Amino acid sequence: MDGWLSKHAKKGFTLTETMVAVALLGCMAALAVPWYGSLIEDGKKLKAISMLQQMRLAQLRYQDRTGSFADAVWKLELQENLDQLKREFNFSLEKVENNNFCVVASRVEQGLARYTIKMDRSGKHDQFVGNSDTSAGPPAVPGLSDFYCR
Fold this sequence. Notes:
The protein is of the alpha+beta class. Helix content is 42%, strand content 22%. It has one domain (12-129).
């Protein structure tokens, strides 16, 4: 019988080898999918921050032209750029007063706000998780002690 096995070499993988390979692939996929999702979300945050920067600059240009800050996003004339992100973020203006303002991006997913990013006139920005109600005050962030949009 030994001679028969040596003449007919074993071909393919055993069931155990196949199951181990499938289990390893499953573990790798379980680690990769959340990581990939967080990379996608980080990219969306960067797009929102870039748009907030454009809104901030448009607000400053608007002030140069009119002598006061715009009180509505449509007055900034960025609608074409905002339309590209409107499925993922709601953009607005807050605390438009005296010599300051806040531009705001709220992340929307299935109708629920997940987080809000605010940027003030100076370009400083911060992220607030969940509800943007900051009556209790957001956690202290180094370098943002003079952040206007709290």
